[in-house]
Amino acid sequence: MLPTVHKCADLIARVLQAVLNVGLLSLAVILMVFLGRETFHLAHVLFIQSEQVTKYQLVEGLLVWFLYFEFIALIVKYFQSGYHFPLRYFVYIGITAIVRLIIIDHDSAGDVLLHAGAILLLVITLWLCNSARLRRE
């Protein structure tokens, strides 16, 4: 009876892993389309300059581009590392997202200070994760 239960559990795990992989591949394709659109928009703004864009909007566009890029890199790393999401990639994405938030919403000095504190906390987390990994190696 026990081997049958293990076979069922293994089959369920494989089916769910396949569904997850298909979903992540679909998400990667969608993100690549958005990355391409953002790249086209940034190139249009930089080289054609038919529209007036402030420096803040340009930097915001670049940070959105990096967010798409980081999410695609996270999905690639997921498949390369044997179906595992490395923590440091989520920290990179969080730092980039908070920097984008500071650029977009910088009206309140208190909010900017809180966001900067969140970035500092994420950088310390990243340092701790990397230093612990280096100590093991």
TrEMBL record:
Keywords: Cell membrane, Membrane, Transmembrane, Transmembrane helix
Pfam families reported for this sequence: PsiE
GO biological process, alphabetically ordered: cellular response to phosphate starvation
Transmembrane segments: 12-36, 56-75, 87-106, 112-129
Keyword Cytoplasm (UniProt): no
Localization in the cell: Cell inner membrane; Cell membrane
GO cellular component: plasma membrane
Bilayer topology term: Multi-pass membrane protein
Sequence similarity: Belongs to the PsiE family.
NCBIfam families cross-referenced by the UniProt entry: PRK02833.1-3
PANTHER family reported in the protein's UniProt record: PROTEIN PSIE
Protein known as: Protein PsiE homolog
Organism: Tenebrionibacter intestinalis
